[in-house]
Amino acid sequence: MRTYLKSVNVLAITVAAASLAFGQGLTGSINGTVFDPSGSAIPGAEITLTNVATSQTRQTKSDTNGDFVLTQLLPGTFRLAITANGFKLEKVICAVDCGLAVNPNIVAMQMESGIGYGLAAALSGAITLKDGRIEQGNFDDYSVLRMNQMPAIDVHILPSTNKPTGVGEPSTPVIAPALANALAAANGNSIRTLPLAGQGVTFV
Q1: Is this prediction's pTM over 0.70?
Q2: In which band, very low, low, confident or very high, does the pLDDT at 2 lie, cut at 50, 70 and 90?
Q3: Tens digit of pLDDT for each residue in 92-116?
Q4: List of domains in the chain
Q5: 86 - beta bridge partners?
Q6: Distance between CA atoms of 90 and 87, rounded to whole angstroms?
Q7: 18-34: b (≥16 Cβ within 10 Å) or e
Q8: In angstroms, rounded to a whole number, what is the distance separating the alpha carbons of residues 65 and 80?
Q9: Of the candidates 50, 49, 51, which has an alpha carbon nearest to the alpha carbon of residue 62?
Q10: Rounded to the nearest 5°, which phi and psi values hold at 195?
Q11: To which H or E segment does residue 126 belong?
Q12: In what order do the strands lie in the sheet with 2-9?
C-alpha cells in the first residue's frame, strides 16, 4: 500500500473554552484547547496573544492535550492567533490479492471502507481510562475520520485464477504502517506509537 502526503498549514482551528478572567489583583488569565477540523487536540500549536491597545504580545504552546494557558495578563482587549502545521493525506494506492474476484466492485468497496476505518484508528482512535472507567462515551469525545480527511483511493485487484477468498478488511491493519512510513519519508521522523494525534501529528 502506498500513501501520498503533503504538508500544509492548518487553516481551520477551533479554540474551545477560551476564557479571560480577572481577579482582585487586576491581572487575569486566558486558557483554552486547540482542536483541528476533525476534533483532535493539537499539541505544540503556537499561541500568540496580542494586546490591541499596546501591541504587546505573549506567546506559549499547547501541551500534549492541546491545552494552553497565559497568566498575569493586565486588563484590556486581546487578539488571539494560533499557528500549527499539518498534513493532508491526498491519495492511497491499494493492491489486493484475493484470488478470483467474483464481484470486483464489492472488493474495491471493502478495501476503501477498511482504509477509512484503519485511518480513523491510526489518526485519533484512542480509548483512555480514568479511575477505572473509560472516558470516551460517544462521538463527541471519540474522533472518527471526517469526510474532508478521506483521501482518494485507487484499488488494484491482482488478476488470479486461484479460488476466491474473503475480503473482509485486509486493508485495515496495513494502512497505519503505510501512513507511518509516508510520514517518515516526509519529515524524517519515525513514529511507533498510535494514535498519531497523540504524537503531535495533525491531519487536515
Answers
A1: no
A2: low
A3: 999 999 999 999 999 999 999 999 9
A4: 9-85 (2.60.40.10), 86-199 (3.30.365.10)
A5: 8
A6: 9
A7: eebeeeeeeebebebbb
A8: 19
A9: 49
A10: -75, 160
A11: none
A12: 2-9, 85-96, 152-157
Residue 22 has pLDDT above 50, yes or no: no
CA distance linking residue 118 with residue 111, whole number of Å: 10
The beta strand positions in 36-188, using DSSP E, are 46-51, 57-61, 67-73, 78-83, 85-96, 129-130, 133-134, 152-157
Backbone angles phi, psi at 175, to 5 degrees: -70, -35
- Provide the CA 136 distance to its chain's centre, in angstroms: 17
Beta bridge partners of 73: 28
Q: Could you tell me whether strands 46-51 and 2-9 are parallel, antiparallel, or unpaired per DSSP bridges?
A: unpaired
Rg of the chain in Å (alpha carbons): 22
- 8-13-18 Cα angle (round to 5): 150
Q: Look at the block and give the residue holding cell 494502512.
A: 175
